[in-house]
Amino acid sequence: MDRELFAIFGDPVSHSLSPMMHNEAFHGLGYPACYTRYRLIDGDTLRERFFSLKLQGVNVTVPHKEAAHRACDLLDPFARKVGAVNTIVERDGRLHGYNTDAPGFLKAIAPFDAREVLCIGAGGTARSTVEVLREAGYRVTILNRGAERLASFREAGFAVETWESFRPRAFDLVVNLTSAGLRDESLPAPREILEALFSRAGGAMDVIYGRHTPFLALAEAYGLPRKDGSDMLLYQGVLAFGHFTDHRYSEEEVESWMRRAFER
Ligand code: NDP
Questions:
Q1: Does the annotation mark 107 as catalytic?
Q2: What is the crossing angle of helices 18-29 and 251-258, to 10°?
Q3: In this structure, what are the phi and psi dihedrals at residue 155, rounded to the nearest 5 degrees?
Q4: CA distance 203 to 46
Q5: Over the chain, what is the mean pLDDT?
Q6: 8 C-alpha to center of ligand 1: Å?
C-alpha cells in the first residue's frame, strides 16, 4: 500500500499537537501514513490545496472551519447543522466533511456526570458544543459578554444571557468556550459572577489546553473538579483518525497511542 498523506490546515498552525498525535497512532498501529501541518492563509483555496497536495484527509483549525464546511461535497448531518467542519476525508474524488470537535467535547465531559451546563462564550466552538450538548439531552444556558452573537442562539431556542441579565445559580458544570485566557490573563466573565457560580458548581472545564488559565485557577481556588481542553483535543483526534482509517481500529487503541503525544 502507498503511504497516505494527511495534514492539518490552519493559520496559525505551528503549535498544533495534531501532527504528533496522528503520527504516534499511525506509527504505533503500523498504518502506512504520515501527517504534516500546512499553513493555509486563504480558506477559499482549501479545496484546491487539498487536491494539489495529494492529501487523503485533513483536520482544519482556526480560522477555516466554516470555509471547510463550504469546500466539502458531502457533509455528515451534524457538520451540516452547525456549519463547521474540522475533519475532511477524500473518497473517490469527493470531499466528505465531519465535525469531531463537538463529540470530542462530549466524551471529555462524561466524567463530570452533569445535566445542567453553563456555556460561557458564543463563538464558533460554542456553536457546535451547545448543539451537541442539547442533542445529548443536557440542559444548556449560554452566557456571553456581548448580546450580538447571542441572537442566533436565541433564535435556535437556547437560553441566553449577557453579563448584565445573568443571575448566577447552581450548574453541574461551567465551561469556558471563549478565548479569554488563551494569550492573556483575562477571565471569560466578571470575577464576581464566576465566584458566585463556582461557590455552587459541580465542576469546571476550559476548552483551552496546555495552560493553567485564570478560569481554571479560580475553579481550583474553589476546590472544584476541573479539566482543561486536552481531552477534548485528544478525543476529536481519535474520532478524526477513525474517519481517516475507515474505522479500522478501536477508539481505545487509537487513544492509547495518541496520548503519547501529550507525554513528550
Ligand atoms: P471565537 O473567537 O469564535 O470566540 C469568541 C467568543 O469568545 C465570543 O463569545 C467572545 O465574546 C468571547 N470572548 C473573547 N474574548 C473574551 C474576553 N476577554 N472576555 C469574555 N469573552 C471573550 O473562538 P472559538 O470559538 O474559535 O474558540 C474558543 C476557544 O476554544 C479558543 O480558546 C480555542 O483555543 C478553543 N478550542 C479548543 C479546542 C480543543 O480541542 N480543546 C477545539 C477548538 C477550540 P463577544 O461575543 O462578546 O466578543
A1: no
A2: 120
A3: -60, -30
A4: 38
A5: 96
A6: 20
Q: What's the gap in Å between 147 CA and the centre of ligand 1?
A: 15
Query: What pLDDT digit, counting tens, does each position of 189-244 carry?
Result: 999 999 999 999 999 999 999 899 999 999 999 999 999 999 999 999 999 999 99
Pocket, ligand 1, Cβ cutoff 6 A: 62, 101, 121-126, 144-146, 149, 177-180, 182, 186, 188, 207-209, 229, 232-233, 236
Ligand 1: nearest atom to the Cα of 120: 9
- The C-alpha cell 449560554 sits at 142
Reference 122, options 107, 136, 141, 96; nearest CA is 141
Instruction: Measure the CA dihedral 130/158/220/179, to 10°.
Output: 60
Regarding pTM above 0.70, the answer is: yes
Looking from the CA of residue 145, the nearest atom of ligand 1 is 47
Rounded Cα distance, 233 and 237, in Å? 6
